[in-house]
Design a protein that fits this description.
2 strands, mainly alpha, two-stranded antiparallel sheet
Length: 168
């Protein structure tokens, strides 16, 4: 009885286009051989076979994630303090208006009230800018979390695969 060997004897995993791919390795194929590909489409196999790049990407992700988390927390704290400041400015403006209305003699508080209103508007604009920045940070945080989950799934598949191939 003749047993034919499969054309692909091994698999490699590569990260490309934000996804992990299984790349079959042909029997007798030298992984370190130089490519003769001349176009981008033909050169995608070489792009996948770069463990140094993957290690570097994981390291960068490990460095960036704590910074993004810390920045996100600081933006959140700044937004909270700006909202508190906005409320204080509003209550102070109301108190000044009450004092101005209650005074027998007219005290020129309109200039101060206008300054407080301008400060309130600037706080509102800054709060909107911070909210947009926080939304972008949340998107980055979510994509980092997705990537971590994706890599864990792939690592679990890679770890489980040798066990299933040895038992069959």
């Amino acid at each position: 009885m003749l047993i034919s060997l499969p054309k692909y004897v091994s698999k490699q995993y590569c990260f490309q286009d934000h996804l992990w791919w299984v790349v079959p390795v042909e029997l007798g194929m030298d992984l370190d051989s130089e490519s003769t590909a001349t176009s981008i489409d033909e050169n995608t196999e070489n792009f996948c076979e770069n463990p140094t790049r993957d290690t570097l990407a994981e390291g960068l992700m490990g460095l960036i994630k704590p910074t993004v988390d810390q920045l996100d927390e600081r933006v959140r704290a700044t937004r909270i303090s700006q909202l508190e400041l906005k409320q204080c400015i509003e209550s102070l403006a109301e108190e000044l208006k009450k004092i101005s209305d209650a005074q027998q003699t007219t005290i020129d508080l309109d200039g101060y009230v206008k300054k407080l209103i301008n400060a309130k508007q600037r706080v509102t604009v800054l709060s909107n800018i911070l909210q947009n920045a926080q939304e972008r940070l949340n998107k980055v945080h979510m994509s980092i979390d997705k990537e971590v989950v994706r890599r864990k799934v792939i690592l679990n598949d890679v770890i489980e695969e040798p066990h299933t191939s040895t038992s069959t």
